[in-house]
Each structure stands twice: as structure tokens, then as C-alpha cells.
């Protein structure tokens, strides 16, 4: 029952986000739509931003299944499917005063994924932890900047091309970045 109630709150919130800006959704709105009282809502979540954060984390964990032979493109496409699936909600949040929620999500997810692939590519190379962190940050901030711009443009339907493009850029330059860092040690 507890999982059902929590999921119902999350689904109700997502449905509202399709039609309303996050700044205009209240806990009362969610409670009325779900047929629950405020105490029930606060049992599961501290506020509506906590609901959004839970949705993003849950959906990302559900969509990211990293296998040893997966490419960066395949992996990032799965992660990006969350923002693509909830396109209207993402745009509403991005255009609200709480844009940082989406930006934090993008940054954390991208840094995690890029970090995994940097670690994979660095095997057999003598790099410091600072070098690996620099390479991870370099690619993460580039990708987050590109994705943020795309969201800001209203998420036009070239998402697969965009992901393909920065994935190809990553694949084409990662060895060069690693070799440069290794040479400078």
C-alpha cells in the first residue's frame, strides 16, 4: 500500500506538471487530486521538489543499465530518455524559478556516466585522480551545457542527433585527452 500511495503522488504530480508550471502546483493540489490528506503527503515527501527529485532519481535508476560493452551513446541515450519522456514537465521546471533542480539532475547524472567511461578508458594509463577528475569535469560540463541549451530552446525533436553528436565527440577525443594528461605527468 505504501508503494502504491507514493507512486500515486508521483504520478499525480507528473500529470500536473504537464499542464502547469511547478511554481503553481501546491501540496493541496496534489492531495486533492490524489484523494489523500496532507499528513499522508508529508509522510512520503517533504515538499513538491522532493517529489520531483524522487521521480528523477527513480526513473534514472530504472533506465540506466550499464553493461561492460555498452557505448557512451547507448548509455547516455538511456539516461536522457527520462527527460525526453517527461518533456513537458522538464520544460515547465526549467522555465520556473527552480531551474536548478533540472540542472542539478543533469549535472549529477552526466558526471556519473562520464566518470564511468573515463574510468573505463583510463585503464592501463598512469593518470592521477586529479587528471581523471579534470577529464570527467571537462566532458560533463560540455554535455550539460549543450543539453541545457537544448532544453532552453523548448527541446526541439533533434534529441537523438544531439546525443549522437556529443557521444561521437567524446569517443573521438577521449584518448587524446588521456594521452595529454599522461604526458604532462
Describe the protein's architecture and organization:
With 185 residues, this protein is an all-alpha fold. It has helices spanning 2-17, 27-34, 38-44, 48-63, 72-85, 87-94, 99-122, 129-152, 159-183. Helix 1 crosses helix 4 (48-63).
Key phrases:
185 residues, mainly alpha, elongated
Give a quick precis of the structure.
The protein has helices spanning 2-17, 27-34, 38-44, 48-63, 72-85, 87-94, 99-122, 129-152, 159-183. With 185 residues, the protein is mainly α. The chain is elongated.
Task: Describe the secondary-structure layout.
Blueprint: H1 2-17, H2 27-34, H3 38-44, H4 48-63, H5 72-85, H6 87-94, H7 99-122, H8 129-152, H9 159-183
Q: How many H/I helices?
A: 9
- Residues in helices, as a percent range: over 70%
Give a short account of the largest sheet: none
Count the strands? 0
- What general form does the structure show? elongated
N-to-C order of helices and strands: HHHHHHHHH
Amino acid at each position: 500500500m505504501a508503494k502504491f500511495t507514493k507512486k500515486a503522488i508521483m504520478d499525480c504530480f507528473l500529470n500536473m506538471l504537464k499542464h502547469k508550471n511547478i511554481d503553481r502546483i501546491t501540496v493541496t493540489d496534489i492531495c486533492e487530486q490524489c484523494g489523500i490528506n496532507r499528513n499522508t503527503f508529508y509522510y512520503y515527501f517533504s515538499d513538491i521538489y522532493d517529489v520531483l527529485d524522487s521521480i528523477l532519481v527513480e526513473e534514472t535508476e530504472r533506465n540506466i543499465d550499464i553493461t561492460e560493452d555498452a557505448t557512451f551513446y547507448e548509455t547516455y541515450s538511456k539516461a536522457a530518455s527520462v527527460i525526453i519522456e517527461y518533456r513537458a514537465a522538464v520544460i515547465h521546471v526549467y522555465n520556473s524559478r527552480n531551474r536548478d533542480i533540472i540542472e542539478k539532475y543533469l549535472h549529477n547524472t552526466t558526471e556519473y556516466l562520464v566518470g564511468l567511461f573515463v574510468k573505463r578508458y583510463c585503464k592501463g594509463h598512469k593518470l592521477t585522480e586529479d587528471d581523471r577528475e579534470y577529464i570527467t569535469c571537462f566532458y560533463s560540463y560540455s554535455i550539460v551545457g549543450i543539453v541545457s541549451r537544448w532544453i532552453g530552446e523548448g527541446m526541439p525533436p533533434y534529441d537523438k542527433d544531439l546525443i549522437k553528436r556529443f557521444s561521437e565527440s567524446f569517443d573521438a577525443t577521449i584518448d587524446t585527452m588521456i594521452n595529454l594528461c599522461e604526458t604532462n605527468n
